[in-house]
Amino acid sequence: MELVYLWVEEYKNIKRQGFNFSPKFRCEFKPEYEKDENGDEFLKDDCELIIEENKDYLSIFPENINITAIVGENGSGKSTILDIVTNMNRNLSKLIIYYNGKELIVKNSYLDNFSINYLRIGVTQLKELNENNLSLRDSLFKNYQKYFFVNKEKKLDSYWYDFINISYLESDKNTQIIINLLKNRKIRLPFNTPKYFTISLKDTDYFDKIIESKIERDESFNISFIENNFFNLDYEIKENKLKRVKFYLIIANIFTYNEDLNNSFASIFFSNNSPQSIDDIIDMFLLYLSPSDKEDINFIVNSLENSFESNKYFNEFTIKIEKLDKNFINRYRRLISSKDNYFSKENNIFDFRFDTNLSDGEFEFLLIFSRIYEKIENKDSIILIDEGEKSLHPNWQKKYIYFLVQFFEKNYQNKIQLLLTTHSSFILSDIPKESIIFLEKDEKTGNCINATEKMEDFNTFGANIHTLLSHGFFMKNGLMGEFAKSKIERIKRFYEIVKKSENEIQNNTSAKKAWIDYFLRRKDKYYYIQSIIGEPFLQKVIKNYLDELEKVFDKENYKQKKLKKLVEEFGEDTVRKFLDND
Predict the structure, then answer these.
(1) In the chain, where are the structural domains located?
(2) pLDDT digit string (tens) for 475-492?
(3) Which run of H or E residues covers position 34?
(4) Which CATH class is domain 2-190+361-470?
(5) Measured between alpha carbons, how far is 419 from 67 in angstroms, rounded to an integer?
(6) Model confidence over 425-455: pLDDT tens digits?
């Protein structure tokens, strides 16, 4: 199943706009409106829907993959289109066309009296799918799934897709998802991946300070008694890593869940049976834990003891990723997460790392791949990724499309349609213009404008980044920074004013003196700005401007500079002979 076309009546800043998502077809919905007695417009019954099949279309992507990019400035409507595609608003008036390989399926969510005259297109037929016809919808889409991936906070309410928020900050949660991907050695990834996973136990001093700070919050607590009866066991904790893990897991869990923590400490240390060993303390604290928490603690400790290899010299445990239990980190996370599932970084006793030092780019690609692996089943899928390259270094943005194509081609046989919003010219250089939707924002209304037709002569595929960036669509006010632009523009404006008023300046002695003073005060700075311009052609243009200005306001110095340049180029004797003959 493939999304072909979307027409939107009105949603946020998108008003009466259509968008083509598949180069296989060219669709255009031509709405006609009437006004009711109140002057409100409504859609007429018989509107024209034009669908042209592109029989010459050839895809550069693998047979089971189709990619469409949506590009435009912030606020132009890129993310809004993805919102609509996910059906987040069932009452939204829209027209959506899908293609299942044999026939085009039109989903019409307009009023019941709206109708379209469908025509047979070659061997491809059209079938109307009314939004209320659930049985037909379910039969057509039972093997079709949608996923919406974003890397920013977003609240959506949808009924027919899976929404996944990729947060690069939840490192522990992301680590578990990545591990689940890496455990499957059949999955082929486009770069070298880690083979081992290491858990580091934080220093005792770090956690001891947390314990002390927690206890000291209650002024009635006898801290000296605690120090004498509790922290004198510190040596035993340091010497036995597994006991230390178990003890700190218990404490972390109590800190997270038990609001009456000080009473727990008091009941243990002020009881008649005050603990004499770390084992006594562990047994007593276990009384305050739920059965599920006890089970999780025992699971973690037993895993470290039986499955991990302990480092003799450091407080570390290492395991081959494929042998790591897929729920290890999730159970640890649950153990020190609050009732509302908030992960307590303060009570975190572990640091996680892979044997390979992953760059930020590799980690983010692994995160995207692992999220996809976690969610996608063996069904045709439409995957929406909202600015997935946003936090990637340009060197990784260059590989974004290549890596995505490699991942899907090597690991999935079902049909995949990727809808990407992007600001990156690196990504657009990997996508043909036929697969790009160009959006503009109306400067007066702020409404979305589909500018794709205006870009027909703009070939993106294989274009160099400078060409893409310098195109007016992406940089309406030029490519350079505003500060540099302002400095260069000042020289250009001064030159233009002088050339326009040159005759008046030359004929007015007092005005000419003021102009000369103005130029001479700024001449050195102007020439310096010209000398450091990085674009050769622009640098030469500004040099010509300044030479022209110097000829007007500092003629003698201009002559001397020209003479010096001729001497350097041709030699003093040659120049002298030339001048003598002249």
Answers:
(1) 2-190+361-470, 196-354, 482-581
(2) 666 667 788 888 998 999
(3) strand 33-35
(4) alpha beta
(5) 6
(6) 888 999 999 999 999 999 899 999 999 998 8
